[in-house]
Design goal:
mainly beta; 5-stranded antiparallel β-sheet; 4-stranded antiparallel β-sheet; globular
Length: about 450
């Protein structure tokens, strides 16, 4: 073949380059995968509530739910409570400069759940049956009320509020705190106070009295301490003694004093503990001392001091904050006055700026607030005294005695018609009005 023939003949076609197995594998999976067959159609399940009987059952359940809600609503504490509120009352006129020469009844109302007159700010509050009612001190007209279908156990005033304790089931367990001016609820709690309880206050805490259990609350009604036989006990071994029963109770300066009757002790015991320990179920005892006799009664506390009466020894004994005896004074009080503990475990005492006044049952014993030493004694009394119109006033048979607070001498007497009532009288004040608690009745005098 000539050179020209070679140049005219075409070049052979090159084979296309095949991909290597090392780079792509031996198969082209994208070209070979067949599309998946469609999922078979599943027939939807019929709702089990489409049948007639199922609809009927659903309707019955709905009716039952509504019925239960109605029962709860009509039997709940809220449904069993009737209450009103009011605007704050107008200011009361000031008390006179001196006790008037005559005082007459201006109104009276039943108040069986108040051991003493309850007045705070410009209001007087009564408690009877299941009703707490704020009244105009000058007219007795009700301004607001809080009523439950439960009986009241007791009521007091502390922190400028009233604390109403109601009896439910086995004890005095329902507590409602109310603003005395408006009737607004400021706190509520469930407690374990015993029947017959009274409330003892030191100004910062309130303690319920009882034979086996003492509960202490702070101003929002949260429990700060419990002392004694605790129901539904969670942590055992926290209480200092078991099997004891309690007599009288007093409180001051963040401490609670109680007379204990304990098995194995030769005589009664005085225990003073903190009202607000580090743990509410673990009492912090300042001291606990066996006394020199039985039937002892803690009369009053002031600061770190506690005054105890020993009837058999006819002594008033004052103890320091560490349990040591500070002083002992002879006591001239009839034995009949000290034969039994007072109702509710609280002594009939009052305090003024400089004095503590204890009503034994027939006499008033005046003590210094500084050291609880006795100053003087007044016979034929019907209750302890209060400051009214800048003077000390003590209820006596037939009226009131206006006394010199320093030595107990009588400045004058004021006649009061008590309509045949001869029992103990507890006094209170509200501006120009003097209040007398006569058993289950509160009477206002002006």
């Amino acid at each position: 073949m000539s050179d020209e023939d070679k140049a005219a003949s075409p070049l052979p076609e090159e084979e296309p380059e095949q991909p290597s197995e090392a780079a792509y594998g031996s198969e082209d999976v994208l070209d070979d995968v067949e599309p998946a067959p469609p999922e078979p159609r599943v027939k939807a399940r019929r709702s089990p509530w489409n049948r007639g009987r199922d609809r009927v059952l659903a309707a019955v359940i709905a009716v039952l739910v509504v019925a239960v809600a109605l029962v709860i609503g009509t039997t709940s504490d809220s449904a069993a409570t009737d209450r009103t509120e009011a605007d704050p009352p107008p200011p009361l006129p000031a008390a006179p400069n001196a006790v008037p020469g005559s005082l007459a009844e201006i109104w009276s109302a039943r108040s069986g759940a108040t051991p003493v007159p309850v007045s705070t700010g410009d209001s007087v509050v009564t408690a009877d049956g299941g009703e707490v009612a704020s009244r105009d001190p000058l007219t007795g007209q009700i301004r607001w009320h809080y009523t439950r279908d439960l009986p009241l156990c007791t009521m007091n005033e502390t922190w400028g509020r009233v604390n109403a304790v109601y009896h439910k089931t086995e004890n005095c367990s329902e507590v409602t705190q109310l603003d005395p001016g408006t009737g607004r609820i400021t706190a509520q709690r469930n407690g374990n106070a015993e029947l017959g309880t009274q409330l003892v206050s030191d100004g910062s805490h309130v303690t319920t009295t009882g034979k086996k259990l003492l509960d202490t609350w702070r101003d929002d009604l949260v429990q700060s301490a419990e002392y004694g036989q605790v129901p539904a006990l969670v942590n055992a071994g926290k209480q200092p003694r078991t099997g004891c029963t309690y007599g009288t109770v007093a409180a001051a300066s963040g401490k609670v004093g109680v007379i204990e009757h304990c098995p194995g002790d030769p005589a009664d015991r005085l225990t003073v503990y903190k009202a607000a320990p580090e743990k509410d179920d673990e009492p912090q005892v300042a001291f606990s001392s066996v006394l020199a006799g039985k039937r002892a009664r803690v009369i009053a506390m002031s600061g770190d001091l506690a005054a105890v009466v020993l009837p058999d020894q006819k002594l008033l004994v004052v103890f320091n904050g560490d349990g040591s005896q500070r002083a002992a004074y002879p006591l001239d009080v009839p034995a009949a006055d000290l034969a039994a503990d007072p109702p509710g475990g609280t002594e009939a005492t009052t305090q003024t700026a400089g004095g503590v006044y204890w009503f034994s049952g027939s006499k008033v014993v005046a003590m210094s607030r500084d050291d609880l030493s006795p100053r003087w004694t007044l016979s034929s009394a019907m209750g302890p005294g209060v400051t009214f119109a800048s003077q000390l006033v003590v209820p006596i048979k037939g009226g009131l005695a206006v006394l010199n607070e320093t030595d107990g001498s009588t400045i004058r007497t004021v006649g009061v018609d008590r309509r045949g009532y001869t029992g103990p009288v507890r006094l209170g004040t509200a501006g120009p009005v003097l209040l007398e608690q006569r058993g289950n009745t509160l009477t206002a005098l002006k």
